[in-house]
């Protein structure tokens, strides 16, 4: 069977969907081919015993510039508080953003996560990342995240008890070898936005974008086997197109397009448990302790009550190295000060290619146009995040429009 569209997009993750939606809005005849069973790619959710279970713990950060492309109201987000719980010698301490919780200033100031000087350094680092123009942030000398934090005056205690586990949950590495440029952009989004979970799970983010495509424009269960200028081969036949956008995960993109270099993948293992009720009164991420295996453990249903069918608490606890549930059960119980036997194990998932590494030198805005009508987008072209995926899709759409609608592009530039 052979089919034709003006533009074929391979992959219905946030990058491919962001590109396709923009192209469709510009009047382009676009068709999306997706190997999997759902739209949204790595944002994937299933229901287990009535619980909403995301494939690995992840959150939507409204501080991302591209969050503006989403209808956040329709996602019915439930929110985490800005900050985290740090457990030291068995006692839980809250470290929270004083702008959100002025009443907690004293508790945060006295929490054993470093000296007052460390906390002042954290505040100054946050003001700089949150409010300097992005151009100034990116013009700063690049180093590793740990070097940047130490240079900002953050000492070892604050680094090991707060920053390392907090950032490990996002960067999926705990050496803090990630580029300081990505740390700056990431921290900026934390300062400027809030983090939340959609009522129907993270997959709803991708599905919202997919719903903006006209019916029949997305083919699920359709893997591209090979891509060449003007053509995409699938098991069901060949698609011809003026432009082809490869919007897959980085490994597949490197396989389909020799011009795309492979990237080092980060992985994460997440254990899901149920408790009869939440041990906490506020929705905060509990950080793993130094020397432990957990990076964090979170009562996700405290932030988004719709993740639970009946008011029981749903916990997501993550480790960087693959772990078996019985290896970390006691640590999870200690993080929440409950008995190990109280935890009812729901499922465990390991995501091997959760996101590409962002080591220095970070190459932001890697080329999305490869020539001969071939384009590429995905989190490996920008930053390893929802923001990076959506921004790369937007860039790819603009590049495609320059090729397939040169007049439209010129009109936009002159209007
Ligand atoms: C557990 C976990 C936690 C995370 N936490 C966060 C977080 O808190 N905040 C954040 O910003 N980011 C987080 N991320 C990263 C974020 O999810 C990704 O950066 C982003 O979703 C990548 O989108 P993408 O469109 O580039 O790629 P993908 O989502 O991988 O989409 C690629 C699509 O291409 C499809 N595909 C692959 N091969 C083919 C083929 N041959 N033919 C057709 N289709 C194909 C795939 O099925 C997939 O649907 C996390 C990721 C994981 C897994």
UniProtKB/TrEMBL annotation:
InterPro entries on file = Amino_oxidase, FAD/NAD-bd_sf
> Which residue windows are transmembrane per the record?
none
Q: Which Pfam families match?
A: Amino_oxidase
Amine oxidase domain sequence ranges: 14-401
SUPFAM superfamilies named among the record's database cross-references? FAD/NAD(P)-binding domain
Q: Which GO terms describe its molecular function?
A: oxidoreductase activity
- Domain of life, per the record? Bacteria
Name this polypeptide is given: Phytoene dehydrogenase-related protein
């Amino acid at each position: 069977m052979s089919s034709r569209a003006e533009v074929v997009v391979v992959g219905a993750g946030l990058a491919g969907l962001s590109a396709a939606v923009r192209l469709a809005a510009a009047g382009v005849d676009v068709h999306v081919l997706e190997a999997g069973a759902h739209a949204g790619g790595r944002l994937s959710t299933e229901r287990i015993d009535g619980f909403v279970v995301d494939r690995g713990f992840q959150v939507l950060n409204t501080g991302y510039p591209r969050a503006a492309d989403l209808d956040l109201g329709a996602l019915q987000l439930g929110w985490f508080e800005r900050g985290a719980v740090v457990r030291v010698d068995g006692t839980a301490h809250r470290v929270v953003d004083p702008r959100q919780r002025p009443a907690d200033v004293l508790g945060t100031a006295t929490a054993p996560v470093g000296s007052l000087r460390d906390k002042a350094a954290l505040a100054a680092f946050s003001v700089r990342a949150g409010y300097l123009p992005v151009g100034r942030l990116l013009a700063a000398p690049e180093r590793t995240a740990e070097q940047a934090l130490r240079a900002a005056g953050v000492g070892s205690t604050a680094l090991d008890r707060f920053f390392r586990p907090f950032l490990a949950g996002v960067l999926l590495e705990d050496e803090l070898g990630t580029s300081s440029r990505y740390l700056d952009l990431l921290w900026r989004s934390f300062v400027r936005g809030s983090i939340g979970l959609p009522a129907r799970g993270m997959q709803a983010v991708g599905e919202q974008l997919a719903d903006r495509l006209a019916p029949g424009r997305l083919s699920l269960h359709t893997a591209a086997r090979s891509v060449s200028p003007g053509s995409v081969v699938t098991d069901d036949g060949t698609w011809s197109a003026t432009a082809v956008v490869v919007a897959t995960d980085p490994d597949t993109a490197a396989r389909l397009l020799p011009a795309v270099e492979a990237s080092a993948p980060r992985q994460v293992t997440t254990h899901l448990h149920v408790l009869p009720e939440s041990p906490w009164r506020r929705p905060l991420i509990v950080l793993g302790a130094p020397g432990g295996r957990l990076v964090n453990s979170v009562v996700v249903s405290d932030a988004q009550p719709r993740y639970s069918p009946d008011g029981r608490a749903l916990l997501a606890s993550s480790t960087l190295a693959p772990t078996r549930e019985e290896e970390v059960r006691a640590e999870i119980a200690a993080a929440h000060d409950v008995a190990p036997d109280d935890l009812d194990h729901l499922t465990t998932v390991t995501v091997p290619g959760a996101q590409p590494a962002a080591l220095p030198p970070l190459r932001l805005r890697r080329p999305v146009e490869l020539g001969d009508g071939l384009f590429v987008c995905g989190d490996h072209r920008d930053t390893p995040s929802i923001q990076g995926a959506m921004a790369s899709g937007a860039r790819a759409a603009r590049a495609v429009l320059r090729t397939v609608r040169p007049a439209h592009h010129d009109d936009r530039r002159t209007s």
